[in-house]
Here is the input.
Amino acid sequence: FFKQKTAYEIRPRDWSSDVCSSDLSDRYGRVFITGYSAMPPEALENLLHTGVFGWTSADTAPALFSNEESTGAYWIDLLGVNQLMVQKGEQLTWLQAALPADYALTKVQETDAWILYSTPAKDDDGFSWRSGNDVALAQPVTPGMRIAVGGRNVAYSTLDGVLPVVRASSGEAKSVTISYRLPHENVIFALMALGFIAIAWLALAARRR
Here is the structure.
């Protein structure tokens, strides 16, 4: 399982993803997120072949170290993963089998149960890939996601439905922000308003009796 710097990040906090922890902060200030979520980033889960509660499968490591077709970059770099925490045994075997010869991991810490590696990933204002004015944000596409450049909401494309891609010049990079709204938000608010009107009407009718 792996710690991600920006894939689940809501600036300026560091979020992490692993296979068996809760979403509570640990004593190192990290926040862990499992794949079990009310609104999971479905395309990311499909890419990484994670199972129930975010459990890693034998296909997760090969997916992390596969190349995204349009950019040619490894998914692990596009996702902004800067650390990998790997359980010894089966998961370590999966990682070692999938690790490309040209990709270097650095051992940071080791216990009897797991090894923590750092990756060569670099943080570039939350962007993990740039081609001209097209930039990929290392944050998974999620229902209700909105992206603004210079304070104005913009349309975005995606990398295989996993990560959003927007147009932003070097000067606009720091003005890119992400926000979220409820899917079908207008319908929900309309139904809530109708509910309040119905309650008020019933209360008024009861008083007239």
